Amino acid sequence: MAKNAEINLRCFQNERKLILNPNYLSMDPLVVLILTLILITVLAFSRRVPAFLVLITGAIFLGLIAGFNPDQVLKWTAEGMGEIFSSFAIVILSGMVIARLLLDQRLLDVIVSGISGRIKTPAAGAGIIGFILSVPTTCCITTYLMIAPAFKGQGDESSGSNKPLYLVAIGSIISYVLIFPTPATMPLLSNLGGGCPAYLFNAVTIPLSLAILAIVILLSGFWYGKGFSSPETGEKRVSEYPLKTHLRAWTPFIAIIGAVPVGVFLLQLSHLGLVQFIMLAGLISTLAFAPRDIRMKGFSAGAKSAGLILFDFCSAGAIGKVIIGSGLAGGIVDSLIPVVPVIMVPFIIAAVFATAQGSRVVTAVIASQIIGTTEIIQQVHPLPLILMVSAGTCFIPYLTDPYFWLIQRTTGDDIGTVLRNYTLPLAFCGLIMLSAAIFLSMTFYPDPMI
Questions:
Q1: How many domains would you assign to the chain?
Q2: Is 15 part of any domain?
Q3: For a tag site, which of 91, 96, 298, 324 has the least CB within 10 Å?
Q4: Do the beta carbons of residue 343 and residue 441 sit within 8 Å?
Q5: pTM for this one?
Q6: Alpha carbon distance 319, 63 (integer Å)
């Protein structure tokens, strides 16, 4: 027996030498991660390299400095991209095509007019519309691009005419990182959910997200000036569209919501299957009611946008796969646990990745893959665990965040103003999520078992 064990050990060591360089064990996993994050941050900050290449370069760099040979690193990279593509392709394509067809038919004007016409202030209307549309469109930035023109210049000149645009952005991000299904919550529930049903997740996160949105709107006068929250800051928008047009505008959202009970109770679909099913329902209903002359044109334009987004998300999967395949995930967490409480580790990992490269979905994918392979998922209940990661994705949205620069371009504000009106309020939202996660972990969900 001892002889067989010695032979097996030698075989393992020989196989390891084929993959690892001798210097691997001398480099701390946290150092490997820090060096990779520095590279990603520099490339992202320069804004001269596409996000896809930034993340792919980071994945390959991480694997190589960890001591693995190029062939193994490239295999992990391809596998990670494939796993993300299989999960996100239908969802992103459906969301982008729905958004494009609504835009081409001017039905977004109907939605914006119907909601904002019943709300007293541009602030509340902007935040609520961004909050609602971000989930079905599957991209908070796309939501902003679609509806920002409707709120351009709606604020009070004394406090800044572009201020409602900040509420559109913040509202879209709040729902995007907290409500299932979005690309930011899908990997969290899949990798960290531990069998937690989607309805239980949303039963907690929907009220929480609405509460955060309400707090942001109430405090908007403090952040943006008193004039911004005044009922006189803008004319009330009254919808004059007929009921038939309103129904067409809301058709994809009705189909998505209606497909949920069918997928859950009748078809008994898993999390991943349910997301594909409801988004296909929304896509098919939108295509069915779209005029023939713009149906294929809208589909092609939406598919083009979806492809660009998908490649960025897939490159995040590449980094996550390299971290997991190399065994660095456990080493990174082991390096943090002696320094900070276990429940704070997911938040710190997410905040670090969010700061380094800016994308909330990329952060959710990588952080959930790292944490999902460690013992943390056996020590913390899935709900507060997921909230910790969501909080980290919002904590420091700064110069590496593409949303930051999009807002800066559309508002024309200087960097300091965008920092004050976008970064700080969103960081405040992240702190609320963090506080909620700690509270749930200490009260309702102290037991890691569901």
A1: 1
A2: no
A3: 324
A4: yes
A5: 0.80
A6: 9
Position 7 confidence tier, pLDDT thresholds 50, 70, 90: very low
Q: What DSSP assignment string belongs to 47-106?
A: T-S-HHHHHHHHHHHHHHHTTB-HHHHHHHHHHHHHHHHHHHHHHHHHHHHHHHHHHHTT
User: Residue 286's domain spans which residues?
Assistant: 28-442
Q: What percent of the chain has pLDDT over 90?
A: 32
| Residue 215 Cα distances to 113, 220, 410, angstroms | 24, 8, 25
**Token couple for 189:** 């529930």
Distances (CA, A) of 349 to 56, 343, 383, 393: 19, 11, 17, 9
> Would 335 be classed as within a structural domain?
yes
Report yes or no: 98 and 137 within 8 Å, Cβ to Cβ. yes
Whether 18 is in a domain gets the answer no
Decide if 203 is inside a domain. yes
Mean pLDDT of the chain: 82
The closest of 370, 379, 438 to 187, measured between CA atoms, is 370
User: For 345-395, what is each residue's pLDDT tens digit?
Assistant: 999 999 988 887 778 988 898 899 889 888 888 889 999 999 999 999 998
Residue of 145, 86, 83 whose CA lies nearest to 405: 145
What CA–CA distance (Å, rounded) separates 170 from 291? 33
